[in-house]
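Following up on my earlier thread - several people asked me to post the actual chain instead of describing it. Fair enough. Here it is, all 166 residues.
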Amino acid sequence: MGSGQLARSASYVQPRANILGLAAGSAALAGGGILMIRSGQTLGWFAAGLFALAVPLLLAGIWRPTAILLDEERITVRTPIGSWGYEWREIADVGIWEHKRYGMALNRLVTLRLRSPQSRTREGFARLFGSGHATLPSVGVDVHEMLDAVTSFWQRALSSNQDETP
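Reply from S.P.:
Thanks for posting it. Predicted structure:
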């Protein structure tokens, strides 16, 4: 690929070591919940159940890790429990959603603002959550690197669509 030439596709896959670390942490916290149950604390049932349910879901990610796939026509997100995606023409804007507490950013995620939900399911989610946004999962990539990649594919798709219109 020459200088100034952009890739035709890109993929970002969550590292398996990251998944194993999360699964080990969840198992340890589930074990802490069991210790709480043994000491007579009823909140232990909640902790043990919540974190024990996370372990199989995380382990499923070892065989099918979360991935974000970008190409000239669409963005696709694959997770252990399903896939979803949007064509670039469905996206109105790309940005960063930031969760702040006491003025400090706790979490940053790349979000897609949709032009309009295309299906009843998407329309229902947009009404339920009060927006037409889709948030990309974190896959162990810096949020600004992910934003740059998604934005460049989105802008390239927009410019190619404008070139095609008479």
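The first helix runs from residue 16 to 38. That should answer part of your original question.
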